[in-house]
Amino acid sequence: MKSKFALKTIVLVLAGAGLVFGGYWVGTQRSMDNAATFGAATKKVDPKTGRKVLYWHDPMVPGNKFDKPGKSPFMDMQLVPVYADEGSEDGGVKISPTLQQNLGIRFATVRREEVRDAFEMVGTTQFDESASEVAQSRVTGYIDKLYARSPQQRIKRGEAIASIFVPDWIAPQEEYLALKRGGNTELALAARQRMRAMSIPDGLINQADRTGQSQKHFTLTSPVAGVITELSVRDGAMVSPGMTIAKVAGLSKVWLVAEVPEALSNAVRSGMAVEATFSGDANRKYSGKVREILPGISTATRTLQARLELDNRDGSLTPGMLMRVRLDTEKPVSRLLVPSEAVIASGKQSIVLVVGENNSMHPVVVTTGRDSGNDTEILSGLSEGQKVIASGQFLIDSEASLKSVLPKFSGNKQTMQSAASLVHRGVGTVEKVTPKALTLSHKPIPELEWGAMTMDFNKSRPELFSEIKAGQEVEFSFKENDDGYLLESVKPVGGKQ
């Protein structure tokens, strides 16, 4: 009987304790839930600032929300209001315009464009051999005067190259002039035909008619405008029929020989339009076309050569210039594009920070397609017209940083609260004390993979840590928040003041 009575007594005690604890727990949860719900639904106005208040909280315990101001139940301090224009109600992160400017954050819009698949090549310019001309001697003579002095000299069309003294032309001209003065028209005509057969130019014959004197010198001129690539004679040299005096390469068009990867050989065809850019000046662009694909593939580079033809009527291109060539496919394709710098590649996935309502920012996993250098194709994850962050990703400098930072952007309140609850500790020397922060030169903090550095740690209230002075060695603890790092405690090393 006694054992049964004792057992009943224990059960009743445990049940009573359970009821008491359960009532307390339910009451606590209800109060917290009601506070959060009331705070979220009611936007009060701060009489001091005139700003709408979402809720009040203790900065030292950020996970709890209160519907009215008062003293914190956790710390000996007043609750701090959270204003509607400070945070984001949609779970994202909101950055003030001032901070956006300081971080150099730029925005871009997801757009859809008709683009052509393209790839780039590198090549060097060459003379257009099909536009080269030769200046040859048709008679036996001597170089009386050489006007072209050296190869690579620019020359105009019709400009003199050399003056040739032709002794064999003197006698036929004297005979023709004598018959003409004698009035023998038929014989004079026959003599004129003989001079033409001897390759005496009509210009010299007409000049002999006008002056009545034989012409002993013949001026050889350039057939095209361009550059003298070969000069085979010097002053006083003897020339013979068919001998090349000079070779002139035209510059109205130039060739560009570009290296094409073997894998893209089927994508390049004769007649395709190209755009070439001078590597030394991105503003110098030239249009042209693929002239032909040269046979043979380099075994060392696994490339073949494509000969391109570029328009050079302004004469700004010369052989040997390094050019970047963009070749577009024939059919355009509609693609969704964002600036390439907007895509954060973590190795396993690609992420874009999307701007929502009230300038809140959310990470979105995307599937990327072709990268043209300036723009990246988005296959899935985004829609046309969305606003994304196009710069500022330099703040996320590694995959490890990405994993630690993105949960703050995700809108997961549980994750955010757990991250905010982490307390880190360090040892350092106080460099400067201000109402807002302490400047500490701290030793390495292994848990954050920090080396020794000097940085600012914020204070939640100006009056905190008033006993701390510059020059003291202190032990400190801190948490991470949206504004940086917030000090939890600071005390001198060894308790010394």
From TrEMBL:
<comment type="similarity">
    <text>Belongs to the membrane fusion protein (MFP) (TC 8.A.1) family.</text>
</comment>
<dbReference type="Pfam" id="PF11604">
    <property type="entry name" value="CusF_Ec"/>
</dbReference>
<feature type="domain" description="CusB-like beta-barrel">
    <location>
        <begin position="253"/>
        <end position="330"/>
    </location>
</feature>
<dbReference type="Pfam" id="PF25954">
    <property type="entry name" value="Beta-barrel_RND_2"/>
</dbReference>
<dbReference type="InterPro" id="IPR058790">
    <property type="entry name" value="BSH_CusB"/>
</dbReference>
<dbReference type="Pfam" id="PF25869">
    <property type="entry name" value="3HB_CusB"/>
</dbReference>
<dbReference type="InterPro" id="IPR045800">
    <property type="entry name" value="HMBD"/>
</dbReference>
<dbReference type="InterPro" id="IPR058791">
    <property type="entry name" value="3HB_CusB"/>
</dbReference>
<protein>
    <submittedName>
        <fullName>Efflux RND transporter periplasmic adaptor subunit</fullName>
    </submittedName>
</protein>
<dbReference type="InterPro" id="IPR058649">
    <property type="entry name" value="CzcB_C"/>
</dbReference>
<dbReference type="InterPro" id="IPR042230">
    <property type="entry name" value="CusF_sf"/>
</dbReference>
<dbReference type="InterPro" id="IPR051909">
    <property type="entry name" value="MFP_Cation_Efflux"/>
</dbReference>
<feature type="domain" description="CusB-like three alpha-helical bundle">
    <location>
        <begin position="168"/>
        <end position="215"/>
    </location>
</feature>
<feature type="domain" description="Heavy metal binding">
    <location>
        <begin position="55"/>
        <end position="82"/>
    </location>
</feature>
<feature type="domain" description="CzcB-like C-terminal circularly permuted SH3-like">
    <location>
        <begin position="337"/>
        <end position="396"/>
    </location>
</feature>
<dbReference type="InterPro" id="IPR058792">
    <property type="entry name" value="Beta-barrel_RND_2"/>
</dbReference>
<keyword id="KW-0813">Transport</keyword>
<dbReference type="Pfam" id="PF25919">
    <property type="entry name" value="BSH_CusB"/>
</dbReference>
<dbReference type="InterPro" id="IPR021647">
    <property type="entry name" value="CusF_Ec"/>
</dbReference>
<dbReference type="Pfam" id="PF25975">
    <property type="entry name" value="CzcB_C"/>
</dbReference>
<feature type="domain" description="CusB-like barrel-sandwich hybrid">
    <location>
        <begin position="134"/>
        <end position="249"/>
    </location>
</feature>
<dbReference type="Pfam" id="PF19335">
    <property type="entry name" value="HMBD"/>
</dbReference>
<dbReference type="InterPro" id="IPR006143">
    <property type="entry name" value="RND_pump_MFP"/>
</dbReference>
